[in-house]
Specification:
- The chain is an alpha/beta fold.
- It is built from 19 helices and 13 strands.
- Helix 1 (6-22) crosses helix 7.
- It is globular.
- The protein starts with 5 loop residues before the first helix and ends in a 7-residue tail after the last helix.
- The relative contact order is 0.05.
Length: 465
């Protein structure tokens, strides 16, 4: 039993209140759950102690049903009623409740009447002006929703892949050490190898999902427990990022791994493809018309059952992967011969050219393109023509010392509002690599911005945008 769980049990009943309202439930029950959340969260005594001494119902607003659910959570770490509510709604629909200006009733209407099932769809509807035309909505609310979405976006911390992978591999090792998992894999955007990720997802197959999920929320790396379910544990790590473990029976593992790896758009098309074949696909498996499960040994088997070749995780973004005739061979890390777009301490980087070059050589690379900021980027210590010349002297000196490695002379040239590049053609011809980028003066119409970029692309010296 948890002795001091007031905050967590309050959050649990707050979630129940929101989901009951989202489900179109009785308003009196909604208020009862919300009141219970407030009372239990503010109780001066630990909820665990009150439950142990059968004194929960002595609190105003805590009746038999609330006390029973509280006891169930304290003993098992779950509430069956809440699990059933959660199962009714996709996680992305529940995310809409974070836009407090909408409220559960309006979220329900947006979802059922307009198919609004994610924050991205809500943002698109607001930006296009469609939202203001929905029943019960107007331009004022549309503006308030957009401001809230901007606030939510600003507070969404993103992490670089290498940081997230280090944490994920440590968690994956913990899963293996428990001896409970038959197999486990990193999922989510990290498995798709996105440049930055907002969280870590791990999917594990085991005979006792509840035990593994419960253990996950108690790992030393967990700074805070976000939620516990019989098949899922979500925590905030000491490093600051969220991590979720999805624990499933072995038979559900292939579908769960596909579901928790693919982007939302990729998964939507997979489900559509299944429906076109008279099948149903969800995170628990692939099912026939009569609801009978269709076993798939692995992810490749699931894709094959949908008439698709194996689609590597890196391609599951709905960017044309469904039109592929076969499985493409992806470039491996061992095949990468060099790196480009590197900033040194000549502009806004941290390390010297020599230190960066030595690190690249140690990694087995044959070249590295140094592309510090151009002179217009004075906020980033951009290089004036004189400093470009001095940097090139240093690059020549370093290259003279190596026969197996070469530093390429590059620049990240600012694209001016009229589409021209920093420096004249004569100076641009001194670089091996020219990257064209926009950092400033971005308050433009789409047409103006497109014209600006197109002119930069047409410049004969531009190699990379």
């Amino acid at each position: 039993m948890l002795e001091n769980a007031n905050r967590e049990i309050a959050d649990l009943f707050s979630e129940i209140a929101r989901l009951v309202e989202l489900d179109g439930g009785n308003p009196f029950k909604v208020r009862a759950y919300a009141q219970a959340a407030a009372v239990l969260g503010e109780s001066p005594e630990p909820v665990g102690r009150l439950a142990a001494e059968n004194r929960l119902q002595s609190l105003a607003g805590v009746g038999e049903a609330i006390a029973k659910k509280t006891g169930e959570w304290l003993e098992t770490g779950r509430v069956e009623f809440l699990e059933k509510l959660r199962a009714k709604f996709p996680d992305t629909v529940v995310d809409l409740l974070d836009v407090v200006e909408l409220g559960p009733k309006r979220v329900r209407a947006l979802w059922l009447e307009h198919g609004m099932d994610s924050l991205d769809m809500l943002r698109e509807a607001c930006l296009s002006g469609r939202f203001a035309g929905f029943k019960g909505c107007d331009a004022e609310l549309e503006g308030a929703v957009l401001r809230r979405l901007e606030e939510l976006e600003a507070h969404r911390v993103m992490f670089r892949t290498h940081q997230a992978r280090t944490e994920a591999e440590s968690l994956l090792a913990w899963v293996a050490d428990t001896g409970l998992a038959v197999e486990a894999e990193i999922a989510g955007s990290l498995r798709r190898r996105r440049e930055v990720v907002k969280d870590i997802k791990i999917v594990a197959a085991c005979a006792d999902p509840g035990a593994l999920a419960a253990g996950f929320t108690a790992t030393p790396k967990a700074a805070m427990v976000v939620s516990r379910r019989p098949d899922r544990g979500k925590v905030v790590l000491e490093a600051g990022m969220e991590a979720t473990l999805h624990a499933v029976p072995p038979g559900e593992y292939p579908a769960a791994l596909v579901h928790h790896t693919g982007s939302r758009a990729h998964n939507a098309l997979l489900r559509q493809r299944a429906a076109e074949r008279g099948l149903t696909l969800n995170e628990r498996g692939l099912f026939g018309a009569a609801g009978a499960p269709l076993p798939c040994a692995d992810e490749a088997g699931l894709y094959a059952a949908l008439g698709l070749p194996w689609i590597p995780p890196e391609l599951r973004e709905n960017l044309g992967e469904f039109e592929l005739a076969g499985t493409p061979r992806l470039v491996t890390p061992e095949e990468v011969r060099g790196v480009v777009h590197c900033h040194s301490d000549w502009s806004d980087g941290v390390d010297s050219l020599e230190r960066m070059a030595c690190a690249a050589r140690e990694l087995g690379y044959e070249y590295m393109a140094v592309t510090d900021h151009s002179r217009s980027a004075d906020y980033a210590n951009g290089l004036t023509p004189d400093r470009v010349a001095a940097q090139h002297v240093e690059i020549d000196r370093l290259n003279a010392a190596w026969g197996d490695f070469r530093l390429l002379k590059g620049i990240e040239s600012e694209i001016h509002p009229d589409g021209s590049l920093d420096y004249g053609d004569e100076m641009l011809s001194l670089f091996d690599v020219v990257i064209a980028s926009i950092h400033t003066e971005t308050d433009m119409t789409r047409r103006e911005a497109t014209r600006r970029v197109m002119r930069a692309i047409e410049h004969p010296k531009t190699m990379i945008l």
